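ok so I'm stuck.
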Amino acid sequence: MKLYLISNRSNTPYDAAVVAAETMEEARLTHPEGYRWDATKNEWVLPHRAGVRCGNESWVPPSKVSVKEIGDAKETQRAGVILASYTPPY
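replied:
not stuck anymore, here's the structure
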């Protein structure tokens, strides 16, 4: 398991997050709130709660997410968001 910095340069409330994931692609498919990208619906959804959507205004689609490996996670670390940077819209 690796640690990744995911970020975007768009005008969204979330601008970055640190996530634990097995691959860069898994990190790219992780929303800073823990949502996952559903390519069939073209939107962010909660994987364990059918029908719960995020709305695409809080984060960008995966194609616009920049991913940078920043280190190794502890063996006990579970995949997911560790820390997110949120700036509320004004």
